[in-house]
From TrEMBL, chain A:
Catalysed reaction equations from the record: 5-[(5-phospho-1-deoxy-D-ribulos-1-ylimino)methylamino]-1-(5-phospho-beta-D-ribosyl)imidazole-4-carboxamide + L-glutamine = D-erythro-1-(imidazol-4-yl)glycerol 3-phosphate + 5-amino-1-(5-phospho-beta-D-ribosyl)imidazole-4-carboxamide + L-glutamate + H(+)
Quaternary state and interactors: Heterodimer of HisH and HisF.
Role, per record: IGPS catalyzes the conversion of PRFAR and glutamine to IGP, AICAR and glutamate. The HisF subunit catalyzes the cyclization activity that produces IGP and AICAR from PRFAR using the ammonia provided by the HisH subunit.
Keywords of the record: Amino-acid biosynthesis, Cytoplasm, Histidine biosynthesis, Lyase
Stated name of the protein: imidazole glycerol-phosphate synthase
Taxonomic classification: unclassified sequences, metagenomes, ecological metagenomes
Organism: freshwater metagenome
Automatic annotation (TrEMBL), chain B:
Pfam family, one: GATase
Domain Glutamine amidotransferase: 6-199
Name of the molecule in the record: Unannotated protein
NCBIfam families named among the record's database cross-references: IMP_synth_hisH (TIGR01855)
One of the protein's GO biological processes: L-histidine biosynthetic process
InterPro entries for this protein: Class_I_gatase-like, GATASE, Imidazole-glycPsynth_HisH
Transmembrane parts of this sequence: none
Stored HAMAP family: HisH (MF_00278)
Subunit architecture: Heterodimer of HisH and HisF.
The organism of origin for this protein: freshwater metagenome
Pathway named in the protein's UniProt entry: Amino-acid biosynthesis; L-histidine biosynthesis; L-histidine from 5-phospho-alpha-D-ribose 1-diphosphate: step 5/9
Reactions the enzyme catalyzes: L-glutamine + H2O = L-glutamate + NH4(+); 5-[(5-phospho-1-deoxy-D-ribulos-1-ylimino)methylamino]-1-(5-phospho-beta-D-ribosyl)imidazole-4-carboxamide + L-glutamine = D-erythro-1-(imidazol-4-yl)glycerol 3-phosphate + 5-amino-1-(5-phospho-beta-D-ribosyl)imidazole-4-carboxamide + L-glutamate + H(+)
Length: 257, 204
């Protein structure tokens, strides 16, 4: 009996549509997040993440509806991130059917938000999303905002340790340098963050070859998130799982039937 | 169609349990009304967050008395996650440095204590070894279910017990013929979770 490594596809949603790099051939409507969630669920993904990249509050209402409709049909954990600023934002998402929320910029602006959410709903709902890049901070890793374009000067390791002490129950570590490159996860960054926290760690950014997934696990990741390699069909979820399983990594067998 | 009440005592995301049970074909009502909770064919006690907060929420809607009355009348109850933990005598969460911990509903003997593992919470899919004669896990021995927790009951309480290992062995599900419970989230465990809920509903 072993805890499985989780494989998590990430869907970027705005105005009710998946927007970033989608090239599904087996779907009538490739941009419908609910349909994509069902396909990934049937293929055996272990969790799903929606990243709400909406610009307006109307769009956010639409995303809530997407979460609602997905939760009606896909009985695996759903995480929703993007634009969460307050306890009431979290409450709305959980009521819509999200199991976890990920917060990023709002926590940097006002770290007490982490404790407020954890106190109200428990640490297990709160994923700290850390968008980090290599920079001249003390540890060599800096927290960024705005999709990696804006540096904060905050050291990524110090920030992660502090946020976990405040109540974050999981860390989603996005490498802004590796994001979209398909050149592999930032292994040095995963190793460094693993050393400062004992909550589950999700690696994100850079997944390309199948060996990249294994390398991230070896560095201490408990879950692996990817977007484009799944959306473009470079790898199916089952390919990743088969590869890892053959090398002795614990994975959950079998998709939904 | 069986009627299922989900006890609403302020613990989050009751809708996911409702949707999953509706999906397998039962009539589900989320309620804090004692009569509804007493009279349904099955009562589900969900729970996320901390033991102490859940226990005070349950006491706030008279949930302990509702469960006791159901047990006395042999009317089934299903606890999920913290809703399982509160069935035991005592929860030691957030009691570090204090004596005693928090009293549970004491339907079953046992203490809920922190798992010893390098990464907590225990979050994700883990296999469950079904207890002999488990009705909940009929046909599901060895399947993976979705867990999110840091505390668990480790010592046997003399029930029909299914077990999982994360750092150490603990009770993943338990049943005594009337009361059933899962430390994992069947409503978030895909097809196998739906099958477990179906097993429970069909046993009512």
């Amino acid at each position: 009996m072993t805890l499985s490594i989780r494989i998590i596809p990430c869907l970027d949603v705005t105005d009710g549509r998946v927007v970033k790099g989608v090239n599904f051939t087996n779907l009538v409507d490739a941009g419908d997040p609910v349909e994509m969630a069902k396909v990934y669920g049937a293929e055996g993904c272990d969790e799903l993440t929606f990243l709400d990249i909406s610009a307006s509050s109307d769009d956010r209402e639409t995303t809530l509806d997407v979460v609602r409709r997905t939760a009606e049909q896909v009985f695996i954990p759903l995480t929703v991130g993007g634009g969460i600023r307050s306890v009431s934002d979290v409450d709305r998402l959980l009521r819509a059917g999200a199991d976890k929320v990920s917060i990023n910029t709002a926590a940097i602006t006002r770290p007490e938000l982490i404790a407020e959410i954890a106190d109200r709903f428990g640490s297990q709902v709160l994923v700290l999303s850390v968008d980090a890049r290599r920079a001249r901070t003390e540890s060599g890793f800096e927290v960024t905002t705005h999709g990696g374009r804006t540096g904060t000067g905050i050291d990524a390791l110090e920030w992660t340790a502090r946020a976990c002490a405040l109540g974050a129950g999981e860390v989603l570590l996005n490498s802004m340098d590796a994001d979209g490159t398909r050149a592999g996860y930032d292994i040095g960054m995963i190793t460094a963050v693993r050393a400062v926290t004992n909550v589950p760690l999700i690696a994100s950014g850079g997944a390309g070859g199948l060996e990249d997934f294994a390398a991230a696990i070896d560095a201490g990741a408990n879950a692996l998130l990817a977007a484009s390699v799944f959306h473009f069909g470079v790898h199916r979820i089952a390919d990743v799982k088969r590869y890892l399983s053959a090398r002795g990594y614990p994975i959950r067998e079998g998709a939904a039937h | 169609m069986k009627s299922i009440a989900i006890l609403d005592y302020g613990s989050g995301n009751l809708r996911s349990a409702q949707r999953a049970i509706e999906h397998i074909g039962a009539a589900v009502e989320i309620t804090s009304d004692a009569d509804v909770a007493l009279n349904a064919d099955g009562l589900v006690v969900p729970g996320v967050g901390a033991f102490k907060a859940c226990m005070s929420g349950i006491l706030g809607v008279d949930g302990k008395a509702i469960m006791s009355k159901r047990v006395a009348a042999k009317r089934p109850v299903l606890g999920i996650c913290i809703g399982m933990q509160v069935l035991f005598t005592k929860g030691l969460e957030h009691s570090e440095g204090e004596s005693g911990g928090t009293d549970g509903c004491a339907i079953w003997p046992g203490e809920v204590s922190q798992l010893s593992a390098p990464v907590l919470p225990h979050m994700g899919w883990n296999n469950v070894k079904a207890g002999a004669n488990s009705k909940l896990l009929a046909g599901l021995d060895g399947e993976s279910f979705y867990f999110v927790h840091s505390y668990a009951v480790k010592q046997s309480s003399g029930l029909i017990e299914s077990r999982t290992t994360y750092g150490e062995s603990f009770i993943a599900s338990a049943e005594d013929g009337i009361v059933s419970a899962t430390q994992f989230h069947p409503e978030k465990s895909g097809d196998v979770g739906l099958q477990l809920l179906k097993n429970w509903v069909q046993s009512l």
